[in-house]
Predict the 3D structure of the following.
Amino acid sequence: MKQFPIAVVMERRRLNNPWVDEAWEAVGVVPAFEEADPAPRRILAESGRGQWRVGGFALELFRDEAENYFSNLSAPVPKVFVMWRREGELALPVAVSVSYGEAARWLDSGEQVDGVPMSREVADWVGEFVNTHYRPEPRRKLRRNDPLAQDRARPGGQA
């Protein structure tokens, strides 16, 4: 297992909406190799918007997720996925991942997940892992001259 320490930047925007006062989202992920204090720290205070840097997280890579990392890196804009929850006055990150599969599982379980663009530094780190551990499944050839090949490929097909 490899790890890459990071901090997440969460943003709160005020809304002009009678039912909802504000909206939260993860807007960035930054390397945090020299993290001294992982507690939420306000880094931006503007009229109508604020940002907090929250440290203490690490991206972890596992061999059984290598295909999901490859899929992420192959996307037009690779992402770091941040699962977060509202805790009192703040929305705080709970977990981070670069796996499409893990992000999908979080979403399927009803969690709030945002994808933020992956930095070049993180992409290079993930790419090195993928190059070492990902091996695509070999493609199976279908015999086009065999009329029963499609039936045998389907569950319950005739042989």
Observations:
- The helical segments are 66-74, 100-108, 120-133, 149-153.
